[in-house]
Structures are given as C-alpha cells and as structure tokens.
Amino acid sequence: MNKRRLAILAVCTLVPLMAFALHAFATRINLNDHYAVGEPLDELHGVAIYYNGGVNTVQGRNLTPDGYNLGLRYQCVEFIKRYYFERYGHRMPDSYGHAKDFFDPTLGDGAMNAKRAMWQFVNGGASQPQADDLLVFGPSLFNRYGHVAIVAQVGGAAIEIAQQNPGPFGQSRERLGLSQRDGHWHVDNSKVLGWLRLPSAAALEKAAPLPAAE
After folding, report:
1. Per the structure, how many domains does the chain have?
2. 88: Cα within 13 Å, side-chain hemisphere
3. Is residue 214 part of a domain?
4. What is the pTM of this model?
C-alpha cells in the first residue's frame, strides 16, 4: 500500500474518531452561561423541570427516601419518572433503562407495558395521544439513548411536550405536529416511537392488555 493510500486511510479513520470525541466532550459541558446545571427552568403541574447543560451531563442518581430510583439528575428520564411519582405516586416495576427502553417494540398497540405499568401505544396507531402521556423518541446518530417527554397539551393539529435535558439551547416546551390519516394518529416526528399512558388503579390491578388495534 503506497503512502497516498495510507494517508487517505488515516484521514478516514481519524476524522470520525475526532468528531465523536469532540461530540462526547461538548455534551458534557455547559455551553450556555445563562443557566447553571440544576437550575429550575419550568414546571408541569407543580413538578419542576431542571436545566442540565450538555445532554450527557450527570449529577448523581436521584432516589426517593425509601430508595425508589427516579433516575440520573437531570436527565430526561429523571423528569418523567419524578413527574409520575410526585403527581400520581406511580412507581415503575422496572425503574432503570435508557429513554429508548421505555418503549417495548415487541408489544402490540394498546398492550400493557409491564416494566412501566402503563398502556403502550404505537405512533401511527388507533389511539390519539393525551395530556400526561409519556412520549418516547428513538435513538439517532448522535443520541444512542433516545429521549422521553410528557405530553403537556393536545389541541388541533399539534401537541405540546414538556421535557428535561433537550440540550443547552433547547426549550423545555416544544410543539410537534399531530395528524390523523385513515383513522390512525401520527405525531409528525420520525423519531417518535409511541406513547405510554398511566392506567387507573383498577386497571392496574387487572393488568390485562387492551384489545389490539385492527
């Protein structure tokens, strides 16, 4: 192999490695000096949404006094679990996992997600998202963990979500398009896998899946 080919190979190898190294560094520092990590930015029904700086910043694990795991401060998962715990006293049977893991692709539309003790609906299925649903985003090239948020409002052709850790310059509230086509509901974002819904106490006791959408 001649020197020119070796140089091309070296460049092709080093450039992606440098890009990922730079990304890893940048996502662990606060690039926005208007806010400090841990500063309250917003709230949804009295549950605080905190600033996290770089999306991979971690400030330790948040546990309830009796040891229930709410997640890593101030990641997106920590907000949604803290939201359901503080607002409804809901504890997920599986209290761990990355954001993408909150959606189980093996389940049918409308089935019970036993790990989260919530009904699960697929994006593009028969069920319209509702306020207080848990919205799950899949992974992307520079975010292999996915993202989660709470549906704050549903109205017209859009939903508003409340989220923690959208990035140093992201917003705690975001609007996403909502459409109905042939009887199926679509959140118009290709990364949205679906949404989970907290059932009533009676439904949780039965823990029976809803009929699958046809």
Report:
1. 1
2. 17
3. no
4. 0.83
Structure tokens belonging to residue 57: 């910043």
Q: Evaluate whether residue 37 is within a structural domain.
A: yes
Smallest Cα–Cα separation from 139: which of 176, 102, 89, 182? 102
Which tokens in the block code for residue 129? Answer: 């998202």
In a domain, 72, yes or no: yes
State which amino acid sits at residue 146. G
Give the CATH number of the domain where residue 128 resides. Answer: 3.90.1720.10
Q: Which of 189, 124, 203 is nearest to 159 (CA)?
A: 189
Q: Is residue 186 part of a domain?
A: yes
CA atoms of 175 and 69, how far apart (whole Å): 29
For the chain of 214 residues, list the mean pLDDT of each consecutive stretch of 10: 61 50 57 94 98 95 98 98 98 97 98 98 97 97 94 96 97 98 96 95 43 36
* Residue owning tokens 């770089």: 54
Q: Do residues 80 and 132 make contact, with C-beta atoms less than 8 angstroms apart? A: no
Q: Which residue has the tokens 């890593």?
A: 72
3-state SS class at 72: strand
∠ CA 164-99-158, nearest 5°, is: 60
Measured in degrees and rounded to the nearest 5, phi and psi for residue 77 equal: -65, -40
Provide the residue type at 7 as one letter: A
Q: Specify the length of the chain in residues.
A: 214
Domain housing 160 = 13-206
